[in-house]
Each structure stands twice: as structure tokens, then as C-alpha cells.
Write a structure and sequence with these properties.
Elements lengths: L1 H10 L9 E11 L2 E6 L2 E7 L2 E2 L8 H12 L3 E9 L5 E7 L2 E2 H8 L3 E2 L9 H15 L12 H7 L3
Parallel strand pairs: 3-6
Antiparallel strand pairs: 1-2, 1-5, 2-3, 4-8, 5-6, 6-7
Helix pairs in contact: 3-4
């Protein structure tokens, strides 16, 4: 029995990071793709995996932030950790009920699939298809003729 408990305690070190899922309340939305989630006594900054929303000062940035606030602010969130980024933020999939925020932002036209970082299949393929459908419907930021992806906007506006 002791060997089994020891083995189970050590098993979590060998599981992929994406297997780590937890719940908390979203207490703050920094922008469309970044949240602060209360997990017990800890506040965890979460960056949404696989998507990139317009920056706050970018066209449609405020709308993306508002969409995220309406979707999840002050609600219980399920967070599936995928990675930790270079800033120490948890990168993950965030859902409320049966809806995945990462997916809903793209569907509504408030986020791009982030090609440099979206590698998890089949999710990233699905996000790309949803982005194409949003473009065709001219949903959200796709109302603009040539919206500038946030990764390009950040390069142009570095301080």
C-alpha cells in the first residue's frame, strides 16, 4: 500500500503539463486573452492558449476585452494548463460550463489563431477553421479590410 501511494504521489511529475486542470474564479480581465484567476488563496495570471486578441490600444482591443469580461468575469473557470510562458504566466484553455473561451473569441471574430504558438491538434486546426468562418462573416475585427495581427502591431509599437 505504501509503495502504491508513493508511486501515485510521484506520478504527477511524469504527466504532461496539459493534464493539469483546476478551477477558480476569474477576478480580473487584463485584456481579451489575459485573465487573473483566484485559485484558493493564490491569484494566477492566465494567458489563453493558441489565440491572440488585439491589444487594448489596437482596433477591436476594447471589444475583445469586453467580450471576455462578459463571458467569464466573476464566474467559475476551468483552466487546463498547457504551458508557462516566458513571463511566468500560466498558458491554458479556459472554459465556463461547456464553452471554451479560446474558441469563442475566435468564433466571434475577436481573436486570431496564434500560428507561432498554436501547436495542439486537433484544437488549432479547429481554431483556424473558425477564424476563416469569422472572416467570411466579417465578424468582429474582420469588419476591417486588413486587420493587423497583434504580434505585428506589438512589433511596430515597441517602446
Amino acid at each position: 500500500m505504501k509503495k502504491l501511494l508513493s508511486w501515485l504521489c510521484c506520478l504527477h511529475w511524469f504527466l504532461p503539463v496539459s493534464a493539469q486542470a483546476w478551477q477558480g474564479e476569474v477576478i480580473k480581465v487584463s485584456d481579451g486573452d489575459t485573465l487573473h484567476v483566484q485559485r484558493g488563496r493564490e491569484i494566477v495570471k492566465v494567458r489563453l492558449y493558441g489565440v491572440d486578441c488585439p491589444e487594448k490600444r489596437q482596433s477591436f482591443g476594447p471589444q475583445a476585452t469586453k467580450f471576455t469580461e462578459q463571458f467569464i468575469l466573476h464566474k467559475k473557470a476551468n483552466v487546463e494548463t498547457v504551458d508557462t510562458d516566458r513571463y511566468g504566466r500560466t498558458v491554458g484553455l479556459v472554459s465556463s460550463g461547456r464553452k471554451l473561451l479560446n474558441r469563442e473569441l475566435v468564433r466571434a471574430g475577436y481573436a486570431w489563431t496564434y500560428p507561432a504558438y498554436c501547436k495542439k491538434q486537433p484544437l488549432c486546426n479547429e481554431l483556424s477553421k473558425l477564424e476563416e468562418k469569422a472572416r467570411k462573416r466579417k465578424a468582429g475585427l474582420w469588419q476591417e479590410r486588413n486587420p493587423l495581427p497583434p504580434w505585428e502591431w506589438r512589433k511596430r509599437n515597441q517602446r
